[in-house]
User: Fold this.
Amino acid sequence: MTMNTQTISGVFAGEVTGIDITRPLPDETIAAIEAGMDRHAVLVFHDQPLTDDTQRAFSRQFGELESAAGGHVTAVRDRRLPLDMQDASNLDQNQNVLTRDDRRRFFNLGNRLWHSDSSFRAVPAKYSLLSGRIVAEQGGNTEFADMRAAYDALDAATKAEIDGLVCEHSLMFSRGLLGFTELTEAEIAMFRPVCQPLVRVHPVTGRKSLFLSAHGGTIIGWPVPEARAFLRDLTEQATQRRFVYSHRWRQHDLVMWDNRQTMHRVTRFDESQPRDMRRTTIAGTATA
Amino acid sequence: MINQIRPSFANGGFGGEVSWIDLTHPLNRKRVTAIECGIDRYVVIVYHGQQITDDQQKAFSLNFGVLEGTAVGTVPGALDQPRPGAFMADVPNLRPDNKPLARGDKRHMFNLGNRLWHTGSSFRAVLTKYTLISRLIGPDPTRRFE
Assistant:
């Protein structure tokens, strides 16, 4: 079996075939996957029936796993999954679908906004690996926008203007966009904003990209309404269809993306049905 | 008249341009009807090269119905010293003395809402029909109105 990576027709993402990621892989294969990530920023692996353990083992070959602590309103004792598995499902700890008025569901609705994983952390995420255990029959696509192409498409005046700008990111900003503002004192303390540059440089390829995210809510030194209007303008430009790959899930897909070069979101789906998606996240390095 | 309204974009029937008309003069009913038919078809119509005063813009606008008041729908205090009259919604970045609004000005903050997709006056019980916007002074023409 030979690993092969091909560009998905018409988009920037790649599809990897000829590989079984449920088993340990030699270093050269891992290096080839990393090279594919540098180039495509999103890689799709079909027909990979992962367990939590095999997903962890595959993920750890790309770096340390990020802990989910501090990133949700679900208390650690109420989590369905261990802290090193991010729960992107609509299920509670008893495997029941979250009810419509459950505040954990309100919080999860933030995933419908374009974002980069963990941009609200001082050390944002490098890769995310999402495994489709139970996928939605309709909707529930994960859409990816290429922030390198979005940066390249900006006019010279905008590139000059955003060079060196620093934004504050917080889960409070993204949830605030949805009107979910009822947070406890402890949650407010946990979601304290962090600073991130508006333009990032990829550590391997050297390519610049826009570091946008729904978590971004201010630009240091700017009046807040002006900053939000500008960030929204940039986000609308950066998420035009020509920059987007929309992934239609099949059971046992694993999709892996580089948060340093992309934003993503989930599209609407029937939340009365279980959707079980599990994410491992590779910690990045501090941007400041 | 209708022959003088043409699609402004190559990619379909949305948006039209009027190639020959002088909006500073009164129009007869036939021409007004032709413009209304053009709007029904193209939804957005652009008239280039119209050096129009406030009074002429009002007169042209009244061909299509009653003008909506602007007393509600701006930030409180913005109309203490209105720039144009109460039937002209002010969309620029200028103060009553025609100097640009300061960056932190509350009126500027309010106007930033125009950067969000919206339909005019959907916040009113009685909605608007047409909006007519006239550009007197503007920045770099590559900055677009979508």
